Amino acid sequence: MIQPARTGYGLPVTAATGLRLRIRVLIADDDPELRIAMGELLEGEDGLEFVGAACDAEEAIELAALYRPHVALVDVKMPAGGGPRAARGIHRTSPETRVIALSAFEDRETVLEMLRAGAVGYLAKGTAGETIVSSIAQVAGGGTTLSAGAMTDIVRELSSQLRREEIELEGRVARVERIRRFIAGSGLTIVFQPILDLRTREVVGLEALARFDALMHRRTEDWFAEAHDLGLGVELETAAIRAAIKAMPVVPGLPTHPYLSVNASHRAAMSFELAGLLGADASRIVVEITEHERVEDYALLLEALDRLRETGVRVAIDDAGAGFASLRHALQLAPDIIKVDTSITRGIDRDRGKRALASALISFADEMEMAIIAEGIETRAELATLMELGVPFGQGFYLAKPGPID
Predict the structure, then answer these.
(1) At 192, is the secondary structure helix, strand, or coil?
(2) How far, in Å, CA of 14 to CA of 273, rounded?
(3) Considering its fold, how many domains does the chain have in total?
(4) Which of 16, 205, 363, 392 could cross-link with 259 by S-S, CB 3.0 to 4.6 Å?
(5) In terms of domains, do 217 and 344 share one?
């Protein structure tokens, strides 16, 4: 049983009279013996007023709203959500109440969880009565209180957390510098994959594909995903498009009729920088809308694409048939070109389901007066099947691999 302990602690003072008030204290613990012991301790102190005892988090929140205690002693492990829920609820319904966490589990995870929930003090069960009373007074006066063991754990945890944050920041700075180097043109190269008329084998277009020269061997889409994660995605995309446009006219003997197909996420497509970048070459540009991120507002994207179309740009939907989002793009954006995803092209000569899906896309494109291109053609059989289905244009390793424009 906890014995009362009388101490000369400071009490809350009223602003009007300057008189010291008795500190109203609430107990919340699912152990009935502890509630009784704590109640006896508090009732034995002249400066304290024991206002009630709760057996779970829900009751603690209700009593705090009813009695508005100065201090609530809250058990970390109790029914109806535990100490963290009680602390958050008490803070919401009685903002002036200051919470001291009680626990038999004096570990840093418990301490930090309660502090995040709004507790300003932490005491281990079994703490001497005199210490409990003085801690209540200290917290009621605006201070904080932590048991020695808890303080050691918190300092250790905060030190580890600061080091983790420092390491994360250093890593982020290095990642940003790497992406900015690509944006500046260092380590970024452009290769081009021809798009052919499947019957005449004439080159009708060239898709610009970014390649990154770095010590880390990663897929191109992973570099773009990292750039978007760092808030540099649009900058990297426009840097790649700028490099592609710059490469087009400088090669002697390049035919004037093939179009240049560039990849752009919806954010890049909506940027004013892209519209200005295309400039005089707009009539030879096809912008392929890729799925780096989910489209939040199709109306705004349509407005941006309409502005590009007014300059002569055509719009293509990339990876059609690969998922719901691509098909939604096709319905919402009414593109000039639909590109059948590689996942459909691959092995289409041996898969009746893929042939049926490709036929549906072809019929849709014909009905909507859109051109259709098959991506990822890698075998003679795939090519023959696609031509039988009526696909007029295609690209893939079987036709031509990506490479320098010459």
Answers:
(1) strand
(2) 62
(3) 2
(4) 205
(5) yes
